[in-house]
Amino acid sequence: MKAAKDAQPLATNRAASHGFHLLDRFEAGLVLTGTEVKSIRAGRANLKEGYAKVEKGEVFLLGAHVSPYEPGSHENVDPVRPRKLLLNAKEIRKLAKETATTGVTIVPLKLYLKNGRIKLEIALAKGKKAFDKREAIATRDVEREMARARGARRG
């Protein structure tokens, strides 16, 4: 997962960390068409409504939107079609086992390039309650104020 942090993101899902407690992270490849690759490289992907689901030993990304590639003509596919994720069998079994429990889902975090291939970082996530969200915002504000005060002392 080190490369995922270093890579330049093509699309991110900032709402995921606000609405969910992120548990385990995984790196997955995607099965894409040529026009989808060009559109994603152009930054025309949206992961906000996306989620992943394990079906019959395979993992699919659902709800993610990849805008049609303008010069693509007839080769463009449905923007929100299910896309197969490429993971090894051990990871798929872990995801299937964890999502069988209630309240745990698989959310996409970011799309990025790694060695010329498009990868997707996904995470097992448990939904936050409203008070958890308020607590996270308050903690972030306190940390920001402390950092601001440290900066003021130095200057």
Describe this protein's structure.
The protein is of the alpha+beta class and 155 residues long. It has a single domain (2-127), classed as Small Protein B, Chain: A (Beta Barrel), CATH 2.40.280. It contains 5 helices and 9 strands, in the order αβαβαβββββαββα. The protein has helices spanning 2-6, 14-19, 34-41, 89-100, 130-154; strands at 9-12, 20-30, 45-46, 51-55, 58-62, 65-66, 83-86, 104-114, 117-127. The chain has a 7-stranded antiparallel beta sheet. Strand 4 (51-55) and strand 5 form a beta hairpin. The longest helix has 25 residues, at 130-154. It starts with a helix and ends with a helix. The mean pLDDT is 84.
| Low-confidence segments | none
Number of domains: 1
Level-1 CATH class name: Mainly Beta
Q: Could you tell me the CATH topology label.
A: Small Protein B, Chain: A
Query: What's the helix count?
Result: 5
Structural class assignment: alpha+beta
Main pleated sheet = 7 strands, antiparallel
% residues in beta strands: 35-45%
Q: Return the CATH architecture.
A: Beta Barrel
Q: Helices and strands, in N-to-C order? A: HEHEHEEEEEHEEH
Mean pLDDT: 84
Helix content: 25-40%
Distance between the amino and carboxyl termini: 37 Å
- What's the overall geometry? globular
Assigned CATH superfamily: Small protein B
Query: In angstroms, what is the radius of gyration?
Result: 18 Å
User: How many β-strand stretches?
Assistant: 9
State the strand order across the main sheet.
1-8-9-2-7-5-4
